[in-house]
Structures are given as structure tokens and as C-alpha cells.
Amino acid sequence: MIIAIDGPAASGKSTTAQGVAQRLGIMYLNTGAMYRAMTLGIVESGLDLEDIDAVQGFIADTVIGFGENNQILLNGNNVSAKVHSSAISDKVSAVSAVPDIRKAMVQVQREIASKNDCVLEGRDIGTVVFPEAKFKFFLVADVAVRAARRMKDLEALGESWSLDELIKDILRRDELDSTRSHSPLVRADDAIPIDTSHLTIDETIEKIVNKITKIKNEETS
Predict the structure, then answer these.
(1) Residue-range domain boundaries for the chain
(2) For a FRET experiment, which of 80, 108, 182, 211 has its CA 20 to 30 Å from that of 99?
(3) Which string of DSSP letters, residue by residue, matches 60-82?
(4) What are the distances in angstroms from CA 10 to CA 154, 207, 213?
(5) CA–CA separation, 7 vs 166, rounded Å?
């Protein structure tokens, strides 16, 4: 069983996906963290994204995986504490837009999900990675709400941003994600939209779990 949860930055995808996976007792595959780990590796290596040969070499030499407690691993090293900094967030959309990187990540995601029931979240799970997934959801939220959520995350990392700065940054990322030529952010025709602006995480999780249960019951009735 594949459950695809897509949506723009700070719409609540990751926390919701973790909660849904926990409720259903299945694996949570954080595809966003995979792209963040790749971004971290590229930033630390000083790689030029325009240098296609260098990018392909980097991909060939890089292994992205998950630890026992779902920590994101870059070449075997736990980088979970590093991948959510603003420095990585600022560059992840550009890195994610590189076709060779997306192809490599999609291959890894499909390999992992082929062996497990999974909840996956990202921007193209329901359209590109698993277009045949039976359960697809697309989370949205008001940009000011998303910026406030992002502010809390950054404050926990010791970073200080104004709400206006974060709104501008999120809108910039939305533009990059939705207009890239390869695997743009777009809602699948059969994805169920959920506006999380005024929902708690628990309420969002409940909506998704209830919908999955309803669909399963209808199939067996």
C-alpha cells in the first residue's frame, strides 16, 4: 500500500505523514529529507549545479538512506540535525530541480517502497514517483500560516527570521517548485485536497486515516 502526501513547503506534509504512518503501523519515507541530504552534500562539497559531469559523479558517489529511527543518512552519517537549517532550505528547491538528482532519488524511493507499505510525502509523489498510488492527498495552507510554522521550526534551531522574510522565501520556493521543467509541484487529478490552515496536525491525520478507511471499506462492501 502506497499513501502519497504532496504539497508545498510548510503545508504540514512531514509531520502529517509521520502521524499517518504511525496510526496505520506502516513505514514513513521522508522524501523531502532525502533531497535535503543531497543538498547538504552538494553545499558542503562546493559543487556547481551547472557542471553536469560533476553532478553525475557526485550522485554516483553518494548514498542516501535512513537509520533505525528514520534518521536521514548521507553516506552512512546521520545528518538529521543539519538538513533543516535555513541555509539548506534556501537551496533545496534548486537542487531538487536538477533532473539527474530527481531521477536518482525517485529510483531509491521506488526501491524502498517496493518492499514496504509506505507513507511518502513530497511534491511529486502522486504525479511522478507513484502515479498509480491508490491513496493520494495534497495539502495546502495559507502562506502566512505556513510562514508561522516555518518560523517555529527555525526558532527551535536557534535561527531568527521575520514573518515577512519567511513569507517571501516560501513564495519564492513555491514559484521554483511549481515552474521547474522536471517533476513540478502540481496536484494529481485524483489527489484529495486538504487545507490545513485551520487544522491541527491531529485533525489532518484523522481526516486522512478516515478517508483511507472509508475507501477500503467501500472496496470490501
Answers:
(1) 2-208
(2) 80
(3) HT--EEE-TTS-EEETTEE-TTT
(4) 12, 18, 26
(5) 17
Residue 135 CB partners (closer than 8 Å, separation 6+): 1, 2, 3, 4, 211, 212, 215
The pLDDT of residue 68: 83
With residue 5 as reference, give the H or E element that holds it: strand 2-6
Angstrom distance (rounded) from CA 92 to CA 77 = 19
What is the overall mean pLDDT for the chain? Answer: 94
Q: What is the pLDDT of residues 172-221, one digit of tens each?
A: 999 999 998 888 999 999 999 999 999 999 999 999 999 999 999 988 87
Q: Is the pLDDT of residue 74 over 90?
A: yes
Compute φ and ψ for 25, nearest 5 degrees: 70, 35
Residue 149 carries which side chain, given as an amino acid letter? R
Cβ proximity of 41 and 174 under 8 Å = no
